[in-house]
Amino acid sequence: MLLSLVFAAVASAGLVLGAVVGMRSMPPVGVLAALLAFASGALLAALAFELFEESFVQGGPFVSAAGLAAGAVVYLATDVWLERRAKAAGRSVSGVVLLAGVVLDGIPENLALGTTLAAGAGSVALLAAIFVSNVPEALVGARSMCDNGRSVPFALGTWCGAAVVLAVAIVAGSFLLADVNESALSVILAFAGGAVLAALSTTLFPRAYRDGGPWVALATVAGFLLAFTLGSAGS
C-alpha cells in the first residue's frame, strides 16, 4: 500500500509541478521543446517495452493489436471532437485538449503502472516516463488556460484534480487489477499504449519539432535511453 501511494504521488506530482510553473512563467521555447522531446522519447520506450510488450505476452497478437488500435482511435476521436468545439466557439481550447489527452491516456497508463506494483516492485521506467511527460503537458496546458481567460485558481484546481484522478488510478490498479485475467490486462496495457502513441504522433512530437527544430531529436534519444535503461535495470 505504501509503495503504491509513493508511486501515485510521484507520477501525479509532475502535473502539479507543471501547472504551477506554467502559471508563474513560461520557460524559453527551446527549453520547453527539449523537455517535450525528452518526455516523448521516454514515453516511446515505456509504451514499447513496458506496456505493449507485456500486453503481447499476456494476450497475444490479436488482443493486444485490438487494444492498441482502440486506444489510438478513442484518443483521436476525443481530440478531433474538442478541436471542432473550439472552432465552433471561435476560441482556442488547447489547454483543455491537453488536459483531455493527459487524462485519456493517463488513466489506463496509470492503471497499468498500478498492475506492475501488484506484480512486484513496480516499473520505475514507466513511472519516470509518466512523471517527465506530465510536467510539460501540464505546463503548457495550464498556461494556455490562463491565456484564454481562465482564472489561476481554476487552472490550478483543474490540473490538481487531474493529478488526483491519475493517482487514484495507480492505487486502484495495484489492488483491483491484481487478479484480473490475462486478456483484460492485455487490453488495458495495449489501450494505454495506443493512446500514448496517438498523443505522441499528433501532439508531442510535432510541437517539440516546431518549437525546437531538428536538434530536439537528441533530447528524444536521451529520453528513450533513460527509460530503456531503467526498464532493463528493473527486469
Q: What do these coordinates show?
A:
- By secondary structure, the chain is mostly helical.
- It has one domain.
- 89% of the residues lie in helices and 0% in strands.
- It is built from 7 helices and no strands.
- The longest helix is centred in the N-terminal third of the chain and has 61 residues, at 29-89.
- The radius of gyration is 17 Å and the shape is globular.
- The relative contact order is 0.25.
- The model has no long low-confidence stretch (mean pLDDT 86).
SSE string, helices as H and strands as E: HHHHHHH
Shape: globular
Domains, number? 1
* Separation, N- and C-terminal Cα atoms: 22 Å
Helix-strand layout with pairing:
Blueprint: H1 2-24, H2 29-89, H3 94-119, H4 124-147, H5 152-176, H6 182-212, H7 216-234
The gist of it:
The protein has 235 residues and is an all-alpha fold. The chain is 89% helix and 0% strand. The protein is globular.
